[in-house]
Amino acid sequence: MAQTEKKGGLLRKSSASKKPLKEKVVLMYDEIFTTEDPSKCNPRFWEELFLMKVNLEYLEGKLEALDGEELMKIKDNINCLFQHCIQALGEEHPIRVVNALQTLCALIRGVHQKNKSTSGFDIINMLVGFDKAELCMKNLMESLDSLLCAEGSESLKSLCLKLLLCLVTVTDNISQNTILEYVMINSIFEAILQILSSPLSRREHGYDAVVLLALLVNYRKYESVNPYIVKLSIVDDEATLNGMGLVIAQALSEYNRQYKDKEEEHQSGFFSALTNMVGSMFIADADEKISVQTNEAILLALYEAVHLNRNFITVLAQSHPEMGLMTTPTSPVPMTPVTPLGTTPPSSDVISSADLPLDADVQTSNLLITFLKYSSIVMQDTKDEHRLHSGKLCLIILTCIAEDQYANAFLHDDNMNFRVNLHRMPMRHRKKAADKNLPCRPLVCAVLDLMVEFIVTHMMKEFPMDLYVRCIQIVHKLLCYQKKCRVRLHYTWRELWSALINLLKFLMSNETVLLAKHNIFTLALMVVNLFNMFITYGDTFLPTPSSYDELYYEIIRMHQNFDNLYSMVLRLSTNAGQWKEPASKVTHALVNIRAIINHFNPKIESYAAVNHISQLSEDQVLEVVRSNYDTLTLKLQDGLDQYERYSEQHKEAAFFKELVRSISINVRKNLAFNTLSQELLLKEFSTIS
């Protein structure tokens, strides 16, 4: 018997020269694409259609090939197909339901392609007709809700979520997607929560559910009341919130694991050996090759949870029992296309053991630690646009955390100590820190380490001013909490002071280049005011009196940088240029730092002269400082412990609009034909009762 080939809906006998035969389902599609009612000649047409295996490619291609005018001619048949799909969702036979769901995906995507054209017809009218839209969409959403909440097939639930993601991401800008009005009216919020609260459902569908929720929350969020925002903000069910946290932790942990694997693979390769031979000449180039796609979709979900729901803050510090286990997936993981935003879901609900500390006596990881590790990787390279957006979102999330009273309480809790192994950018002038030497400390130390690491490693020509401002604001907010609650944190404050002084030095050295693009005085003022916080209130939150002495020592030791900064801002504040006002603010802010320098420097010089010492040791300088505090006069500066709280709508709306747009595009790309494949579904429903 001659072999049969199948291509584009055609059946062709390879040994014959006869005209190719079309699949029956393709012939039925062709009938729909005429102006005649296909059920006139065959009353069982629609019943038979949903028993046929869907040819997604043919159906979508057929819709896309028509222009707007041609599509309008067959609008009645398209409406009829859409309505029969919705009716089929209520059928008992799962194969009919599967075929209806996939047909709806093809219809929505295919018709949307026409909506991009200049014909201007409305996608809702084309799919269901204005007169029936409300009832049809209500029935569709109720059917999807029932399928998601039912005890039945996990494959059906997966397909329902795929259809909903298809529906949500059909336009690049989801706020222009008018179909979502019906998703707002007929909420599936409770169904999403049910998935997240059930271990089995969460393992299978948690990723899609979390991404779907994050996108729905962003539909016209600044223009109208979005019920998903309202409902997410008041969720207080522990199992649901923990489930959401677990899905996010797993996705971020998977990213961290992939990065670590690539890093180890890179270091063990030939290039590593070559680098060792010739020194660290090529270290920057080597690091650039270690690249794992970032995952903004899951990061957006984390942001919305932290920003909207105060109860979610408790999830950040909670260790999940699954985190300590390592399981092998029982079935092979389906291959999914890689996209620039890494919206491919992780394969398991269980945190990889690679993300856990190596020592058996160390506590298991938690969502915040996993997020800090993720941030430390993403924030290394901000030259790439996706990583820049990811880095910015990481800092926005940390800003929300740093403002929250409860979050600060567990960040600073001495009874919650962890070893957090942050990734550090390879740099010529420093050795790689050994992981085993990391001390157990409160989590706020890891946050401060991350901020210091960013400050030190991003002083470059393409200066990320916005990220630096956010970074300094986070440090300031943490200090405000420490001052307010008199928390004496045992932290290596010198590293922070040194990083801040080097940042000021960088701003001065690159004044001309940076001023052409940025108002560097805003950042300089914030840095100077951090020092003012330590000077004015340091005795209430620095761990020991000697820490306060060390602060003065650092200011005196690096006095040349502060003198140079004062000269620069004085020069610009006495001119009538555009920088007069911002520069003069820095001039006024330097008053106490200059008072310290001018008070102690003569005393140190005098001590050296009297004792005939050419260069004083640190201990000798500290001795001079301690014995001359009494005669030092400082001015009280107002508002040092005050800050403007984070506001998304007024300052970040444009960023989130663009971010959600890019996520929508990439989620849509991930809903490729292979992710909607029927093979597994048909195996599951191989018999029709």
UniProtKB/TrEMBL annotation:
Please list the residue ranges annotated as the Armadillo-like helical domain.
435-671
What InterPro entries has UniProt attached to this entry?
ARM-type_fold, ARMD3-like, ARMH3_C
Any one Pfam family here would be ARMH3_C
Keyword list, A-Z: Membrane, Transmembrane, Transmembrane helix
Q: Where in the cell is it found?
A: Membrane
- Primary location class: membrane
- An example Gene Ontology cellular component term from the record? cytosol
Protein name as annotated: ARMD3 protein
